């Protein structure tokens, strides 16, 4: 008998028919003798629809009230799922965050988890209930409702796995695992049986939409295995787990891409200490987080250029801020473009295996793809290229490292 | 400067445009210098839609989970309204029941209010906020979410008026006050400027759907004046207040009707003590509450007939129970019908003014309407008649007592 955390996303509870299917799966585990804690998201589409309502009222919704609004979808899901479990003859009880003292910071719309009281959950499990918990939400010290950011139900599930010392955390979703590339771009991506936390984080931050990154960070911190699998098919998915157990040599696990990238360049900045810091602290105040940053000398040795990429949703504001900085710092010019994209190759030990890095550049060159900017970490080599080349780049790199690599 | 409680029903917050209109009204009062506490219902249609979802899953939804489900609509309304108030330049803060310790009994779907902590509400009012509170909901001692029954937001508003010692409780709705009869039946009903708590209760229980009866009971207990008025037009409505301030003589304030009535008769019951008690205690166990009860002797002096009316929604179950009782009690027969209706004349002192009661019967007789059963209280004379005659009865009694009565 094990303690299993199962998380079901919005598509899995999109309507009452699907809720009944989830209940069947939950009850199957319960009848096998396991303790089951279920975390659910809002029904698919509901959160988007509520956000739309908020913006019909104001362009600048109060964040406390936005959290109050957006946590209703999960509450609907937990209630309906509990009813469906009862209908199948097992006991169930649903909880909102405030009912299990799921405490977070007060940072509305992006709160961090502080503490979870497991007493009530354990009592209800012992009494034979399936415990159904609303994902995504928390309460702060004033009992104000907070949220963990979009996709935060994954984080709820993994955090519960940690505090309850669960045997397994299963994340059920509409894909059946982590793939070496996006199936919409590459014809024959391979499903990974296992992936390390670090690689999963890099995959996620490089554009693969599978797990909420914070859920992976918490899993890594508490060494919780996450089983990412399909809601619709009963087949094994991908286990996200500690890297050193599975990794012995540098190995590419995936190729990801992101099209929503914009680039800004400040030309001819006087070479003075604190210039770069000024640029990035000003952006940080506006909550704009540059992804790749490149500082380079121009022909005139006393002048520098600084380029950085941001999400296209932030581009407009970032340009406005940079315009002001241009005057203030005495830069010669400013340019920006939104037709760029990022391709990333993910795998532990990449950067220290120069032959792999060099093979990335060779592959892109052979395919007449110009590299505009490069950033490399221990397990991620990313290249900024023109948006029109992005699918070609993913295909070529996947063919090079995955198809031929095994 | 006054403390005003305003309650807006589902049609007033049916969509974001209407929420903005409510915000304008709220902000107008706030800018005049008043403290404003607003109670809102779920957007029109949402609660019905959630109930439908629940019954798609099970014919017997767990009541705790049903309350969990049905309280989400109000949470959406309070969040959107608070955002809309911010957009108009005033501060607002929304609260669910758990955030203001709005404690109730654990009777899910029909909980009773035990206590409300006013500290946080008062603090937020003092800090200049419009305080927006989710109607209909409470929490019990375990922090489980409860509801006060359909229409319970009126009760929330009046209870808050009582504990906050408010200067006025305004209930905004889609009608502009209490009328002497249903405008869909009678051509020229009159709007009442004032009505007593008792008369209002009788109007409500006799079929007029204006205020949740429990809200009127609480208002009477704490002597709170309720101003019932239109969401859409800025005109005075009807004040519900203490009776003895406004009533000096017997006066008819309204004629109401209810079509959803069924009647059951047990014939030839042996005349033994405890027979009637057995019938009604058995029905009570099934939560069936007879409205009008009539016990009469038959030609054989040792046998009685018992007739009673129930809501048509309860008729089927009541017949089933009565079939069993028929055997048990040795009754000669059982009959039931669902094509009956109730017409009621409401007004303080009615029963003791025999000329009024007799005028009711005369009026119905003049219009060839047969009276099947009669019940009379201090302020309510009700007659069970055939359903086909109900509109004619209301028109005739309204013409007699209201049109000619002034």
Automatic annotation (TrEMBL), chains A, B:
Which GO terms are recorded in the biological process aspect for this UniProt protein? homoserine biosynthetic process; lysine biosynthetic process via diaminopimelate; threonine biosynthetic process
Q: What is its EC number?
A: 2.7.2.4
For the protein in the UniProt heading, the enzyme class is transferase
| InterPro entries given in the database record | AceGlu_kinase-like_sf, ACT-like_dom_sf, ACT_Aspartokinase, ACT_dom, Asp/Glu/Uridylate_kinase, Asp_kin_monofn, Asp_kinase, Aspartate_kinase_CS
Where does the ACT domain start and stop, copy by copy? 264-348
Keyword terms of this UniProt record: Amino-acid biosynthesis, ATP-binding, Kinase, Lysine biosynthesis, Nucleotide-binding, Repeat, Transferase
- In terms of superkingdom, the source organism counts as Bacteria
Q: Which residues bind ATP?
A: 7-10, 173-174, 179, 184, 209-210
Name of the featured protein: Aspartokinase
Q: Which organism is it from?
A: Sebaldella termitidis (strain ATCC 33386 / NCTC 11300)
């Amino acid at each position: 008998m094990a303690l299993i955390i199962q998380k079901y996303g919005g598509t899995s509870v999109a309507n009452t028919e699907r809720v009944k299917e989830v209940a069947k799966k939950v009850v199957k585990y319960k009848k096998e003798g396991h303790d089951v804690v279920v975390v659910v998201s809002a029904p698919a589409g509901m959160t988007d629809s509520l956000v739309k309502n908020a913006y019909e009222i104001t362009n600048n919704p109060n964040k406390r009230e936005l959290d109050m609004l957006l946590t209703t979808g999960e509450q609907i899901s937990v209630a309906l799922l509990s009813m469906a479990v009862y209908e199948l003859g097992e006991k169930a009880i649903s909880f909102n965050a405030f009912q299990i003292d799921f405490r977070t910071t007060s940072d509305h719309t992006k709160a961090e988890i502080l503490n979870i009281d497991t007493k009530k959950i354990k009592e209800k499990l012992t009494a034979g209930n399936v415990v159904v918990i609303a994902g995504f939400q928390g309460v702060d010290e004033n009992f104000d409702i907070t949220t963990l950011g979009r996709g935060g139900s994954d984080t709820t599930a993994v955090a519960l796995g940690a505090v309850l010392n669960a045997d397994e955390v299963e994340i059920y979703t509409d894909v059946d695992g982590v793939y070496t590339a996006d199936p919409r771009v590459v014809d024959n991506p391979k499903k990974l049986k296992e992936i390390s936390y670090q690689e999963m984080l890099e995959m996620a931050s490089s554009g693969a939409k599978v797990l909420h990154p914070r859920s992976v960070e918490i899993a890594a911190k508490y060494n919780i295995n996450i089983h990412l699998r399909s809601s619709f098919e009963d087949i094994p998915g991908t286990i996200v787990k500690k890297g050193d157990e599975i990794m012995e040599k540098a190995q590419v696990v995936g190729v990801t891409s992101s099209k929503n990238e914009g680039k800004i360049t400040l030309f001819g900045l006087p070479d003075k200490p604190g210039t770069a810091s000024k640029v990035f602290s000003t952006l940080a105040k506006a909550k704009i987080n540059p992804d790749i940053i490149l500082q380079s000398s121009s022909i005139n040795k006393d002048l520098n250029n600084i380029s950085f990429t941001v999400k296209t949703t932030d581009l407009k504001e970032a340009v406005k801020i940079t315009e002001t900085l241009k005057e203030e710092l005495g830069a010669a010019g400013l340019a920006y473009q939104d037709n760029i994209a990022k391709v990333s190759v993910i795998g532990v030990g990449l950067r220290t295996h120069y032959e792999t890095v060099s093979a990335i550049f060779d592959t892109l060159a052979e395919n007449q793809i110009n590299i505009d900017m490069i950033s490399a970490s221990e397990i991620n080599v990313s290249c900024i290229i023109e948006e029109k080349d992005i699918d070609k780049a993913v295909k070529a790199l996947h063919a090079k490292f995955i198809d031929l690599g095994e």
